[in-house]
Amino acid sequence: MTAGKTASKAVPMVKAEGVHKSFGTAHILKGIDLEVAPGEVFCLIGPSGSGKSTFLRCINHLEQVSAGRLSVDGELVGYREKNGKLYELRDREVAARRRDIGMVFQRFNLFPHMTALENVMEAPVQVKRESKAGARERARKLLDRVGLGDKTGNYPSQLSGGQQQRVAIARALAMEPKLMLFDEPTSALDPELVGDVLDVMKDLAADGMTMVVVTHEMGFAREVGDSLVFMDDGVVVESGHPRDVLTKPQHERTKSFLSKVL
Ligand code: ADP
Ligand code: MG
């Protein structure tokens, strides 16, 4: 068997099978099926309110799915499987699983009273009990990597939105996640600041990070994405290679959405 065939059998990093999510009587996700392979850059697009953030939040244990199966790296989200039985995860177990997943939001969510360096060091020191010296060293390298080696002592208020978002990415990377989730990471930025953040994401992708990216940046999706899913009203309407979905959309809803954003 060739190496390629072995690789194609790798456990998906994310696998959704008939995933539903309701909030009370509001049925938001209506049967999502998709797979994200390790190392893949998986882009998710769709109109506001279609359920993109809700789906990311389910992957990251911030919401429980109402029905269906959702797994990350072969483990069911929210449950532990033992001898064919399912047990709900305890809080401590959820926290442990979440440590392997990095998430970057539209709003940067940095700790305002901490410098860039302290923001990046915080979780490794508090959660992983890493030594301060070791965490500081790694935080410096990460800030260097996102182009902020000269801003380590700045507070969030002394950084532009794009710089804050790059600190947020470095902070997520400090936990050495196996999966990164991005929820419209550039939507709140002034246009001239978007490019630097996308460049950092491209660099991460080139480095082999598995990424699920909710975005309206179709250029990024076309250039960096391995897959593109168009979601509308809680269902996957269309999916495929970004080039195909963007240039030859098959469904009316996809065509109509793309005509508004391209
Ligand atoms: P998108 O990210 O695609 O814009 P969302 O996942 O944020 O969509 O939201 C999809 C729908 O789910 C919206 O109608 C929103 O109001 C609803 N929703 C999201 N979170 C909650 C919640 N915690 N309680 C009730 N409704 C929610
Ligand atoms: Mg959203």
From TrEMBL:
GO terms for molecular function: ATP binding. Residues 14-258 form the ABC transporter domain. InterPro entries: AAA+_ATPase, ABC_ATPase_HisP-typ, ABC_transporter-like_ATP-bd, ABC_transporter-like_CS, MetN_ABC_transporter-like, P-loop_NTPase. This is Amino acid ABC transporter ATP-binding protein. Belongs to the ABC transporter superfamily. Signal peptide: none annotated. SUPFAM superfamilies: P-loop containing nucleoside triphosphate hydrolases. It holds the Pfam family ABC_tran. Keywords: ATP-binding, Nucleotide-binding, Transport.
